[in-house]
Amino acid sequence: MCVILDTNVLLGALISPHGPPDAIYRAWRAGRFELVTSVAQLDELRRASRYPKLKTILPAHRIGTMVNNMQRAIVLERLPHLPDGFDTPDPDDAFLPAMAIGGEADYLVTGDRRAGLLQRGNIGRTRIITPASFCAEVI
């Protein structure tokens, strides 16, 4: 099973060590599923580590450790173009559906209700669900 974790889920795993995002991250580290990421997402994680509000609660070395761990995931170097007519309300999140298509993922897990991905429900074969739903169904 291949899974994509939205960057907000990955950061949530670092911020709250006892919530669903952390349980999902630990399940991946334990080999329960394959994680699909991309160069774009790894860059976003590095950028996020420099946000002032995150710098105060997350030391850079914790994000660095996560980025290093994610090098062991399936890292997509190039992402496919999204199909014609596929709109993403947040252009900064366009790499997520592209990862779903390019990585042939089974799940895309996101906690971002404003980006419009959860409302879609799926991208091709990829189901889009919340961290709590993923934990209830898979972990």
Automatic annotation (TrEMBL):
Domain of life of the native organism: Bacteria
Domain PIN: 1-117
InterPro entries: PIN-like_dom_sf (IPR029060), PIN_dom (IPR002716), PIN_toxin-like (IPR002850)
Pfam families membership: PIN_3 (PF13470)
Annotated protein name in UniProt: Twitching motility protein PilT
Organism of derivation: Allochromatium tepidum
Organism placement in taxonomy: Bacteria, Pseudomonadati, Pseudomonadota, Gammaproteobacteria, Chromatiales
